[in-house]
Amino acid sequence: MELDDHAEELASDLGVDKEEVKSDLQNLVEYSVPVDEAKQSLRRKYGDGSSSGGGTPSAKNVADITPEDGSVTVTGTVLTAGERSIRYQGSDHVIVEGQLADETGRIDYTAWEDFGLEPGDTITAGNAGVREWDGEPELNVGESTALSFESDSLEVPYGIGGEAELADLEAGDRARTLEVAVLDCERRTIDGRDGETEILSGVLGDESGRLPFTNWDPVPEIEEGASVRIENAYVQEFRGVPEVNVSEFSRVTHLDREIDVGSDATTMDVGEAVRTGGIYDVELVGNAIAIRDGSGLIQRCPECYRVIQKGQCRTHGDVDGIDDLRVKAILDDGTGTVTAVLGDELTEDVYGGDLEDALEAAREAMDQEVVADEIRENVVGREYRVRGHLSVDEYGANLDAETFEESDDDPAARATAFLEEVDA
Ligand SMILES: [Zn+2]
Q: Residue ranges per domain, the chain?
Protein backbone atom coordinates (compact mmCIF):
# COMPACT_ATOMS: atom_id res chain seq x y z
CA MET A 1 0.00 0.00 0.00
CA GLU A 2 1.29 3.46 -0.91
CA LEU A 3 1.58 6.25 1.64
CA ASP A 4 -1.26 7.97 -0.15
CA ASP A 5 -3.57 4.97 0.41
CA HIS A 6 -2.63 4.79 4.07
CA ALA A 7 -3.45 8.47 4.42
CA GLU A 8 -6.76 7.98 2.62
CA GLU A 9 -7.72 5.13 4.97
CA LEU A 10 -6.75 7.08 8.08
CA ALA A 11 -8.51 10.23 6.93
CA SER A 12 -11.79 8.40 6.32
CA ASP A 13 -11.54 6.42 9.61
CA LEU A 14 -10.80 9.52 11.65
CA GLY A 15 -12.88 12.02 9.69
CA VAL A 16 -10.03 14.48 9.22
CA ASP A 17 -8.35 16.18 6.27
CA LYS A 18 -6.37 13.76 4.15
CA GLU A 19 -3.55 16.17 3.28
CA GLU A 20 -2.99 16.90 6.97
CA VAL A 21 -2.85 13.21 7.85
CA LYS A 22 -0.58 12.54 4.90
CA SER A 23 1.92 15.18 5.91
CA ASP A 24 2.00 13.82 9.49
CA LEU A 25 2.43 10.31 8.18
CA GLN A 26 5.22 11.42 5.88
CA ASN A 27 7.07 13.03 8.80
CA LEU A 28 6.92 9.88 10.90
CA VAL A 29 7.98 7.64 8.04
CA GLU A 30 10.93 9.91 7.28
CA TYR A 31 11.97 9.42 10.89
CA SER A 32 12.07 5.68 10.06
CA VAL A 33 8.98 4.96 12.13
CA PRO A 34 7.33 1.84 10.61
CA VAL A 35 4.14 2.74 8.77
CA ASP A 36 1.86 0.64 11.03
CA GLU A 37 3.24 2.29 14.11
CA ALA A 38 2.95 5.71 12.49
CA LYS A 39 -0.72 5.05 11.74
CA GLN A 40 -1.38 3.96 15.33
CA SER A 41 0.29 7.05 16.62
CA LEU A 42 -1.86 9.24 14.33
CA ARG A 43 -5.01 7.45 15.45
CA ARG A 44 -4.05 8.44 18.98
CA LYS A 45 -3.27 11.98 17.93
CA TYR A 46 -6.62 12.45 16.20
CA GLY A 47 -8.43 10.77 19.06
CA ASP A 48 -9.74 7.52 17.64
CA GLY A 49 -10.52 5.77 20.92
CA SER A 50 -12.31 2.93 19.20
CA SER A 51 -9.38 1.10 17.65
CA SER A 52 -6.16 -0.46 18.83
CA GLY A 53 -4.50 2.81 19.79
CA GLY A 54 -6.69 3.63 22.79
CA GLY A 55 -5.38 3.70 26.34
CA THR A 56 -1.90 3.33 27.74
CA PRO A 57 -0.13 0.13 26.76
CA SER A 58 0.64 -2.30 29.55
CA ALA A 59 3.96 -2.17 31.40
CA LYS A 60 6.67 -4.53 30.17
CA ASN A 61 10.08 -5.66 31.28
CA VAL A 62 12.83 -4.67 28.87
CA ALA A 63 13.66 -8.31 28.08
CA ASP A 64 10.04 -8.94 27.04
CA ILE A 65 9.82 -6.12 24.49
CA THR A 66 9.73 -7.40 20.92
CA PRO A 67 9.66 -5.60 17.56
CA GLU A 68 6.00 -6.72 17.29
CA ASP A 69 4.97 -4.49 20.20
CA GLY A 70 3.48 -1.35 18.69
CA SER A 71 4.08 0.59 21.87
CA VAL A 72 4.91 -0.18 25.48
CA THR A 73 5.17 1.35 28.91
CA VAL A 74 8.53 0.66 30.45
CA THR A 75 10.46 1.67 33.57
CA GLY A 76 14.25 1.67 33.43
CA THR A 77 17.52 3.38 34.21
CA VAL A 78 19.16 5.54 31.57
CA LEU A 79 22.60 4.02 30.96
CA THR A 80 23.65 6.49 28.29
CA ALA A 81 22.23 9.65 26.73
CA GLY A 82 24.05 11.26 23.82
CA GLU A 83 22.90 14.20 21.77
CA ARG A 84 23.32 14.08 18.04
CA SER A 85 22.29 16.44 15.28
CA ILE A 86 20.37 15.13 12.32
CA ARG A 87 19.25 17.01 9.26
CA TYR A 88 15.55 16.64 8.73
CA GLN A 89 13.42 18.49 6.18
CA GLY A 90 16.20 20.99 5.54
CA SER A 91 16.94 21.97 9.12
CA ASP A 92 18.97 20.53 11.98
CA HIS A 93 17.30 18.72 14.87
CA VAL A 94 18.95 17.51 18.02
CA ILE A 95 17.97 14.02 19.09
CA VAL A 96 19.14 12.00 22.08
CA GLU A 97 20.20 8.39 21.71
CA GLY A 98 21.33 5.82 24.22
CA GLN A 99 20.43 2.73 26.18
CA LEU A 100 17.82 2.08 28.84
CA ALA A 101 18.00 -0.91 31.22
CA ASP A 102 16.04 -2.67 33.93
CA GLU A 103 16.88 -5.86 35.87
CA THR A 104 16.03 -7.99 32.83
CA GLY A 105 17.92 -6.39 29.97
CA ARG A 106 18.98 -3.38 27.91
CA ILE A 107 17.36 -1.64 24.95
CA ASP A 108 18.45 1.18 22.62
CA TYR A 109 16.26 4.26 22.54
CA THR A 110 15.93 7.44 20.53
CA ALA A 111 14.34 10.50 22.13
CA TRP A 112 12.93 12.89 19.52
CA GLU A 113 12.35 15.62 22.07
CA ASP A 114 14.51 17.09 24.80
CA PHE A 115 13.36 15.35 27.98
CA GLY A 116 16.63 16.20 29.76
CA LEU A 117 17.64 12.56 30.13
CA GLU A 118 20.91 11.96 31.99
CA PRO A 119 22.78 8.70 32.66
CA GLY A 120 21.63 7.33 36.02
CA ASP A 121 18.07 8.72 35.80
CA THR A 122 15.32 6.19 36.41
CA ILE A 123 12.34 6.92 34.20
CA THR A 124 8.98 5.55 33.18
CA ALA A 125 8.16 6.00 29.53
CA GLY A 126 4.43 5.60 29.04
CA ASN A 127 3.44 4.71 25.51
CA ALA A 128 6.89 4.57 23.96
CA GLY A 129 6.93 3.39 20.35
CA VAL A 130 8.81 0.22 19.45
CA ARG A 131 10.51 -0.19 16.12
CA GLU A 132 12.77 -2.84 14.72
CA TRP A 133 16.38 -2.00 13.99
CA ASP A 134 18.71 -4.72 12.71
CA GLY A 135 16.35 -7.40 14.04
CA GLU A 136 16.27 -5.90 17.55
CA PRO A 137 13.55 -3.81 19.20
CA GLU A 138 14.34 -0.15 19.81
CA LEU A 139 12.33 2.45 21.73
CA ASN A 140 11.09 5.69 20.22
CA VAL A 141 10.39 8.26 22.88
CA GLY A 142 8.54 11.21 21.42
CA GLU A 143 5.56 13.51 21.40
CA SER A 144 3.06 10.80 22.28
CA THR A 145 5.15 9.41 25.15
CA ALA A 146 4.35 10.34 28.76
CA LEU A 147 7.76 10.48 30.39
CA SER A 148 8.23 10.73 34.14
CA PHE A 149 11.29 10.63 36.37
CA GLU A 150 11.14 8.14 39.27
CA SER A 151 12.49 9.10 42.67
CA ASP A 152 13.40 5.50 43.55
CA SER A 153 16.32 4.41 41.42
CA LEU A 154 16.36 0.95 39.93
CA GLU A 155 19.26 -1.44 40.56
CA VAL A 156 20.51 -2.59 37.18
CA PRO A 157 23.33 -5.05 36.45
CA TYR A 158 24.95 -2.77 33.84
CA GLY A 159 27.49 0.03 33.93
CA ILE A 160 26.09 3.55 33.73
CA GLY A 161 27.77 6.13 31.51
CA GLY A 162 28.78 4.13 28.44
CA GLU A 163 32.45 3.54 29.29
CA ALA A 164 34.01 1.27 26.67
CA GLU A 165 37.30 0.06 25.30
CA LEU A 166 38.04 0.47 21.61
CA ALA A 167 37.96 -3.28 20.97
CA ASP A 168 34.34 -3.43 22.25
CA LEU A 169 33.01 -0.75 19.92
CA GLU A 170 30.64 -1.65 17.11
CA ALA A 171 29.05 0.37 14.36
CA GLY A 172 25.77 1.79 15.70
CA ASP A 173 27.08 2.38 19.24
CA ARG A 174 25.96 5.70 20.74
CA ALA A 175 26.99 7.85 23.68
CA ARG A 176 30.23 6.01 24.40
CA THR A 177 32.87 7.23 26.83
CA LEU A 178 36.49 6.43 25.94
CA GLU A 179 39.88 7.07 27.52
CA VAL A 180 42.36 6.99 24.68
CA ALA A 181 45.68 8.20 23.29
CA VAL A 182 45.66 10.18 20.04
CA LEU A 183 48.21 8.23 17.98
CA ASP A 184 47.83 10.12 14.76
CA CYS A 185 45.95 13.30 13.89
CA GLU A 186 45.65 15.45 10.80
CA ARG A 187 43.56 18.47 9.88
CA ARG A 188 41.63 18.17 6.65
CA THR A 189 39.25 20.37 4.70
CA ILE A 190 36.17 18.60 3.42
CA ASP A 191 33.16 19.56 1.37
CA GLY A 192 30.53 19.21 4.08
CA ARG A 193 26.78 19.67 3.90
CA ASP A 194 27.30 23.36 4.76
CA GLY A 195 30.21 23.97 2.40
CA GLU A 196 33.91 23.66 3.20
CA THR A 197 34.67 22.72 6.80
CA GLU A 198 37.75 21.69 8.71
CA ILE A 199 37.79 18.35 10.48
CA LEU A 200 40.36 16.28 12.31
CA SER A 201 40.96 12.65 11.48
CA GLY A 202 43.43 10.08 12.68
CA VAL A 203 43.86 7.08 14.93
CA LEU A 204 43.01 6.50 18.61
CA GLY A 205 44.54 3.78 20.77
CA ASP A 206 43.99 2.18 24.17
CA GLU A 207 44.98 -1.02 25.99
CA SER A 208 42.59 -3.01 23.80
CA GLY A 209 43.45 -1.80 20.31
CA ARG A 210 43.30 1.03 17.81
CA LEU A 211 40.54 2.62 15.72
CA PRO A 212 40.30 5.53 13.27
CA PHE A 213 38.37 8.64 14.34
CA THR A 214 36.87 11.81 12.89
CA ASN A 215 36.37 14.97 14.95
CA TRP A 216 33.72 16.95 13.08
CA ASP A 217 34.11 20.09 15.14
CA PRO A 218 37.86 20.26 15.93
CA VAL A 219 38.78 20.76 19.58
CA PRO A 220 42.29 21.72 20.74
CA GLU A 221 42.45 18.79 23.20
CA ILE A 222 42.66 16.37 20.30
CA GLU A 223 46.24 16.51 19.03
CA GLU A 224 48.90 13.95 18.30
CA GLY A 225 50.38 12.46 21.46
CA ALA A 226 47.59 13.62 23.78
CA SER A 227 45.71 11.39 26.23
CA VAL A 228 42.03 12.31 26.35
CA ARG A 229 38.68 11.32 27.78
CA ILE A 230 35.92 11.53 25.17
CA GLU A 231 32.31 11.47 26.37
CA ASN A 232 29.40 10.99 24.01
CA ALA A 233 31.17 9.57 20.97
CA TYR A 234 29.22 7.55 18.42
CA VAL A 235 30.43 4.81 16.12
CA GLN A 236 29.82 4.42 12.43
CA GLU A 237 31.16 2.03 9.87
CA PHE A 238 33.58 3.58 7.42
CA ARG A 239 35.18 1.47 4.68
CA GLY A 240 34.33 -1.72 6.51
CA VAL A 241 35.68 -0.81 9.97
CA PRO A 242 34.16 0.94 13.00
CA GLU A 243 35.10 4.61 13.21
CA VAL A 244 34.84 6.77 16.35
CA ASN A 245 32.92 9.99 15.67
CA VAL A 246 33.54 12.95 17.93
CA SER A 247 30.83 15.56 17.34
CA GLU A 248 29.99 19.05 18.56
CA PHE A 249 28.04 17.33 21.38
CA SER A 250 31.00 15.25 22.56
CA ARG A 251 32.96 16.38 25.62
CA VAL A 252 36.74 16.06 25.34
CA THR A 253 39.04 16.59 28.34
CA HIS A 254 42.76 16.03 28.91
CA LEU A 255 43.79 13.01 30.96
CA ASP A 256 46.63 13.16 33.44
CA ARG A 257 47.59 9.54 32.96
CA GLU A 258 49.40 7.97 30.04
CA ILE A 259 47.40 5.46 28.03
CA ASP A 260 49.24 2.21 27.51
CA VAL A 261 48.45 1.35 23.92
CA GLY A 262 48.48 -2.35 23.21
CA SER A 263 50.98 -3.32 20.54
CA ASP A 264 49.59 -6.72 19.65
CA ALA A 265 47.33 -6.94 16.65
CA THR A 266 44.73 -9.69 16.44
CA THR A 267 46.07 -12.65 14.49
CA MET A 268 43.52 -14.50 12.38
CA ASP A 269 43.08 -16.87 9.47
CA VAL A 270 42.55 -14.96 6.23
CA GLY A 271 39.09 -16.49 5.72
CA GLU A 272 38.00 -15.63 9.26
CA ALA A 273 39.29 -12.04 8.90
CA VAL A 274 37.48 -11.51 5.58
CA ARG A 275 34.22 -12.82 7.08
CA THR A 276 34.31 -10.14 9.80
CA GLY A 277 33.75 -7.56 7.05
CA GLY A 278 36.74 -5.42 8.04
CA ILE A 279 39.15 -4.93 10.95
CA TYR A 280 41.24 -1.88 11.68
CA ASP A 281 44.34 -3.60 13.03
CA VAL A 282 44.93 -7.25 12.16
CA GLU A 283 47.83 -9.59 11.44
CA LEU A 284 47.57 -12.22 8.72
CA VAL A 285 50.03 -14.83 7.49
CA GLY A 286 49.82 -16.18 3.95
CA ASN A 287 51.69 -17.20 0.84
CA ALA A 288 52.17 -14.57 -1.83
CA ILE A 289 50.63 -16.33 -4.83
CA ALA A 290 50.59 -13.45 -7.34
CA ILE A 291 51.32 -9.77 -7.90
CA ARG A 292 48.38 -7.91 -9.38
CA ASP A 293 48.31 -5.37 -12.23
CA GLY A 294 48.93 -1.85 -11.01
CA SER A 295 51.99 -2.93 -9.01
CA GLY A 296 55.57 -1.69 -9.30
CA LEU A 297 56.17 1.71 -10.89
CA ILE A 298 52.85 3.53 -11.18
CA GLN A 299 51.57 7.06 -11.85
CA ARG A 300 49.09 8.99 -9.71
CA CYS A 301 46.85 11.93 -10.55
CA PRO A 302 48.27 15.16 -9.05
CA GLU A 303 44.74 16.29 -8.16
CA CYS A 304 43.13 13.27 -6.52
CA TYR A 305 46.15 11.01 -6.04
CA ARG A 306 44.38 8.02 -7.57
CA VAL A 307 46.34 5.69 -9.83
CA ILE A 308 46.07 6.68 -13.49
CA GLN A 309 46.49 4.74 -16.74
CA LYS A 310 48.36 6.23 -19.72
CA GLY A 311 48.19 9.75 -18.26
CA GLN A 312 44.38 9.66 -17.94
CA CYS A 313 42.59 10.23 -14.64
CA ARG A 314 38.98 9.03 -14.63
CA THR A 315 37.93 12.28 -12.95
CA HIS A 316 40.51 14.84 -14.08
CA GLY A 317 41.24 13.63 -17.63
CA ASP A 318 44.63 14.30 -19.19
CA VAL A 319 47.08 14.94 -16.33
CA ASP A 320 50.81 15.01 -15.72
CA GLY A 321 51.14 11.95 -13.46
CA ILE A 322 53.32 11.67 -10.36
CA ASP A 323 55.55 8.59 -10.24
CA ASP A 324 55.10 6.30 -7.25
CA LEU A 325 55.78 2.76 -6.07
CA ARG A 326 53.12 0.30 -4.94
CA VAL A 327 52.55 -3.45 -4.64
CA LYS A 328 49.27 -5.33 -4.65
CA ALA A 329 50.15 -8.87 -3.58
CA ILE A 330 47.58 -11.67 -3.33
CA LEU A 331 48.06 -13.67 -0.13
CA ASP A 332 46.54 -17.10 0.44
CA ASP A 333 46.62 -19.20 3.60
CA GLY A 334 44.31 -21.99 2.47
CA THR A 335 41.26 -20.42 4.19
CA GLY A 336 40.92 -17.42 1.89
CA THR A 337 42.72 -14.73 -0.08
CA VAL A 338 43.34 -11.07 0.51
CA THR A 339 45.17 -8.38 -1.46
CA ALA A 340 47.96 -6.81 0.59
CA VAL A 341 48.53 -3.24 -0.58
CA LEU A 342 52.04 -1.92 0.07
CA GLY A 343 52.86 1.79 -0.01
CA ASP A 344 56.10 3.25 -1.34
CA GLU A 345 58.34 2.41 1.63
CA LEU A 346 57.34 -1.24 1.96
CA THR A 347 57.57 -1.53 -1.82
CA GLU A 348 61.16 -0.26 -1.74
CA ASP A 349 61.95 -3.10 0.70
CA VAL A 350 60.55 -5.85 -1.49
CA TYR A 351 61.88 -4.28 -4.70
CA GLY A 352 65.35 -3.70 -3.28
CA GLY A 353 65.58 -0.13 -4.58
CA ASP A 354 63.94 3.29 -4.42
CA LEU A 355 61.89 5.33 -6.88
CA GLU A 356 65.05 6.61 -8.68
CA ASP A 357 66.26 3.03 -9.17
CA ALA A 358 62.85 2.02 -10.50
CA LEU A 359 62.75 4.95 -12.97
CA GLU A 360 66.27 4.12 -14.10
CA ALA A 361 65.39 0.44 -14.65
CA ALA A 362 62.24 1.42 -16.56
CA ARG A 363 64.21 3.82 -18.80
CA GLU A 364 66.83 1.19 -19.56
CA ALA A 365 64.25 -1.46 -20.44
CA MET A 366 61.95 1.12 -22.06
CA ASP A 367 59.17 -0.63 -20.12
CA GLN A 368 58.02 0.18 -16.58
CA GLU A 369 56.69 -3.36 -16.14
CA VAL A 370 60.25 -4.49 -15.37
CA VAL A 371 59.79 -3.11 -11.85
CA ALA A 372 56.69 -5.23 -11.20
CA ASP A 373 58.49 -8.23 -12.74
CA GLU A 374 61.40 -7.82 -10.33
CA ILE A 375 59.02 -7.58 -7.36
CA ARG A 376 57.12 -10.63 -8.58
CA GLU A 377 60.34 -12.60 -8.69
CA ASN A 378 61.27 -11.53 -5.15
CA VAL A 379 57.90 -12.08 -3.51
CA VAL A 380 55.80 -14.80 -5.16
CA GLY A 381 56.13 -18.20 -3.54
CA ARG A 382 57.20 -16.85 -0.16
CA GLU A 383 55.20 -16.64 3.02
CA TYR A 384 54.57 -13.23 4.64
CA ARG A 385 53.30 -11.93 7.94
CA VAL A 386 51.33 -8.74 7.25
CA ARG A 387 49.85 -6.30 9.71
CA GLY A 388 47.45 -3.58 8.68
CA HIS A 389 43.93 -2.39 8.15
CA LEU A 390 41.53 -4.75 6.38
CA SER A 391 38.57 -3.44 4.42
CA VAL A 392 36.07 -5.64 2.65
CA ASP A 393 33.82 -3.96 0.11
CA GLU A 394 32.90 -3.95 -3.57
CA TYR A 395 36.63 -3.65 -4.38
CA GLY A 396 37.31 -6.94 -2.61
CA ALA A 397 39.30 -7.73 0.54
CA ASN A 398 42.23 -5.30 0.77
CA LEU A 399 44.77 -5.18 3.55
CA ASP A 400 46.43 -1.77 3.75
CA ALA A 401 49.80 -2.99 5.00
CA GLU A 402 51.74 -1.26 7.76
CA THR A 403 54.28 -4.05 8.02
CA PHE A 404 55.09 -6.78 5.50
CA GLU A 405 57.71 -9.26 6.65
CA GLU A 406 58.75 -12.63 5.42
CA SER A 407 57.35 -15.14 7.91
CA ASP A 408 60.05 -16.60 10.11
CA ASP A 409 57.87 -19.54 11.06
CA ASP A 410 59.63 -22.84 10.70
CA PRO A 411 57.55 -24.69 8.06
CA ALA A 412 58.29 -28.06 9.69
CA ALA A 413 57.05 -26.82 13.08
CA ARG A 414 53.92 -25.46 11.46
CA ALA A 415 53.27 -28.76 9.69
CA THR A 416 53.63 -30.60 13.00
CA ALA A 417 51.29 -28.19 14.76
CA PHE A 418 48.77 -28.60 11.95
CA LEU A 419 48.91 -32.40 12.13
CA GLU A 420 48.42 -32.27 15.90
CA GLU A 421 45.38 -30.09 15.38
CA VAL A 422 43.97 -32.54 12.84
CA ASP A 423 44.61 -35.49 15.17
CA ALA A 424 43.05 -33.83 18.17
ZN1 LIG B 1 42.35 12.79 -10.60
A: 3-45, 62-149, 166-254, 266-298+324-415
